[in-house]
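=== RUN LOG ===
request id: a7f3
mode: sequence -> structure
chains: 1
length: 183
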Amino acid sequence: MSILRFFVGGLAACTAMPGLAADKPKVFEVAALKFTPPKSTKEVTWTVEAPTSRMRKAQFKVVGAKAEATAQCVFFYFGPGAAGGVQANFARWIKQFSPPPKPAEINQGTREVNKVKVHVLKVNGTYLDGPPFGAKIPKKNYRLYGAIVDAPRGAVFVKMTGPAALVMQAEAACFKMIESALK
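=== RESULT ===
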């Protein structure tokens, strides 16, 4: 019995020490890819949240330095060949803005990381926030940063939305998180 107390007490002491494993971001898996979440900085805090639907495989709350601006970053996976292609999804994401964004407010391209294509979309405008089939709340000066990863087991969809300035600040960290799974 005293050995058990010693073990449990020692384990508790180790996990309470700063700088140990508790400070490391917890790796999460989507479609057999292992992603490492970004570390929080003075400018942007990343917090893991429980996914709010079965379609979501991972979800983060992204908060700006003044804590008044909040964005959300979500990972989706539907299986091989599901959910349509890159252009169909980009078109669907662009339609979540009203009025439709001008061409200057849309930026899309493809990057390759270790022979895996990552399609990226950036859109600015008035975002219609809300559930897929529910009421929408217009959010002015918002930005969508989306990425579709051509993963071997099917596309992984990453979508971050929030106030434009905050999302722009968090984009590099979001892409680094995507890259972490492809190395």
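=== NOTES ===
Strands lie at 28-30, 33-35, 44-49, 56-64, 70-77, 106-113, 116-129, 137-149, 156-163.
The CA atoms of residues 144 and 161 lie 5 Å apart.
=== END ===
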